Amino acid sequence: MQTYTKRSNLKSYLILLPITLFAIFPFYIMLKSSLEPLNDILSRFHLIPNNWLYFENYKLVFQEYPIFRWFLNSSFLALIAVLGNIIFCPLVAYALARINFKGRNFIFLCVLATLIIPVQVLAVPLYLMMSKLGLNNTYLAVLLPDLVSPFGIFLLRQAFLAIPKELEEAALMDGSSRMGILFRIILPNTLPSLATVASLKFMWVWGDFMWPSLILNTEEMKTLPVGIASFQTASALVPWDLVISASVVAVVPIIVIFFMFQKYFVRGLTDGAVKG
Amino acid sequence: MLERKQNLLGWLLVLPAVIILGGFFIYPMVYSLIVSLFKWDLLGSKTFIGLDNYSFLLFKDVVFKKSLINTLYFSIFYIIGSLLLSLGTAMIVQQQLKGIRTIRTILMTPLVIPMAITGIIWSLLYEPYGFVNALLDIFGVQGKEWLFNSKYAMPAVILVSIWQSFGLYTIIFVTGLQQIPNNLYESMSIDGAGKWKMFQHLTLPMLKPTTFFVTTLLLINSFKVFDQIWVMTQGGPGNSTITLVVYMYQKVFSSVGLATAASSILFIIVLCLVFIQYYLMGREDKH
């Protein structure tokens, strides 16, 4: 029996090997190409770069393109969006979960409705709206639709509902205010959900493409994906040495954050899939 | 008095949602529906033309028709490929193997990368002297100009999309597989059923709700596909990879009316799919 399971385990690993390689290999190619001069990238394929310490591409890309600015733009937008969500979503979610006010059901219905609307559908009308408001090419235009997310409200409301009502009633009897309860009882008990909302929001804004590429059009305003994509699609001859090392700059932070907070990411991604 | 205070507090707290969701989700949606009834090229003036934008898109515009057909083409192969790969992978990673958690995390990694960057990475892999052709060369297969050939561009884009998301569907399938009671497997194996038989007569039927769910999810996501296509081919060559959202994006600056009409059509399609999903889920729950 022992040897049987060992052998079947071995078989599982053998099947998993190509699948795992499939998932991870493109990242390796990206990394190794970023350490090669353009000629090497475009001629015969090498599995291993000639010189692991060839950093010219990185030097060049930081000189030739406002990569650093794009990096700051992406970070700024993502952080503000996260901040907006962890401030506003709990307030909204708490009201929807616990406070009996007139129109609550209607608001909740609206949140559910917005959960369904794909961002791709909103991009065109949002572009028209922002142009009319004179907000074209501003951070504010990128951020406004990102400050509160229906997904965050929904997820936090679920988490708040799971906390026993008795806990709250006892605190109310002791003279706590509603806000006191939210900050001292509810939020400390739902930090994992808050972390999930924060990590997902960061990932979405960091990687967002369609909306920022519509609304941002000067070099210094672009985010990393928009900027990098613009010099990839600009000409038929792609400057791969620069494009790919810039891509590494865009990918590394999000991978680091993913591995740091993977528990929250995985939960959020599967929850996000389940709830729209 | 207390009731009034509750109402005030409630509305105060939901105010951010009312402003943001109302102003930047619901209002644009309604605005889009209205604009779709006008002829408008962004710079000029608007003229009301009723449903003409819709009838033009649905009955006259060959490019729009092409984008619909391409979206369907994309979704069929994206769905089949994703289902097979993620179910197959799930069957293995659901086991208690050493290091399986790390492997599961690795499979999820493509999901967190910005989709546009994913498109860029794969464009490099599809270069004439890139990795894909080098790999095919080992097996003696002639390399192709993947993204510059109207026959191969779409399959190339589909593969990227499968790569990006199969980790997520794998995890959803793992959750589904773990809900199948173990004693069912035991009683079947006592009856002498082999592995394949168990998969066919127990695993697959028990996984039906999960499969339905994943399929509708894949379908909804196919209709939203944009970033990777825009970066890799911009809808070309020769409109061979133009999808609904790509069409929309191309039309923003030339005909706002058509762009918003296309986006309304997209919304209606997604809405229908979401309702089908809820309906199926609800029906499964009752069983």
Describe this entry's structure for a reader.
The complex is a heterodimer of chains A (276) and B (287). With 276 residues, chain A is mainly alpha-helical. Chain A has a single domain, classed as MetI-like (MetI-like fold, Orthogonal Bundle), CATH 1.10.3720.10. Chain A has helices spanning 2-33, 38-42, 56-64, 67-98, 104-116, 119-132, 139-143, 150-161, 165-173, 178-189, 191-207, 210-215, 224-233, 240-260, 262-275. The longest helix of chain A is centred in the N-terminal third of the chain and has 32 residues, at 2-33. The relative contact order of chain A is 0.14. With 287 residues, chain B is mainly α. Chain B has a single domain (50-286), classed as MetI-like (MetI-like fold), CATH 1.10.3720.10. Chain B has 13 helices and 2 strands; from the N terminus they run αββαααααααααααα. In chain B, strands 1-2 form a two-stranded antiparallel sheet. In chain B, helix 1 crosses helix 13, helix 3 (62-93) crosses helix 7 and helix 4 (100-112) packs across helix 7 (153-178). Classes of the chains: A mainly alpha (276), B mainly alpha (287). At the A-B interface, helix 1, helix 4, helix 5, helix 6 and helix 11 of A face helix 1, helix 3, helix 4, helix 5 and helix 6 of B.
Number of helices of chain A: 15
Largest pleated sheet of chain B:
2 strands, antiparallel
Number of strands of chain B: 2
Head-to-tail CA distance between termini of chain B: 46 Å
Series of H and E elements of chain B: HEEHHHHHHHHHHHH
Query: Any idea of the CATH class of chain A?
Result: Mainly Alpha
Measured as a percent range, the helix fraction of chain A is over 70%
Rg of Cα set of chain A: 24 Å
CATH superfamily of chain B: MetI-like
- Identify the most extensive interface between protein chains: A-B, 91 and 88 residues
Shape of chain B: globular
- Low-confidence segments of chain A: none
- Per CATH, the architecture of chain B is Orthogonal Bundle
- Largest sheet report of chain A: none
Neighbour order of strands in the largest sheet of chain B = 1-2
Rg measurement of chain B, Å:
24 Å
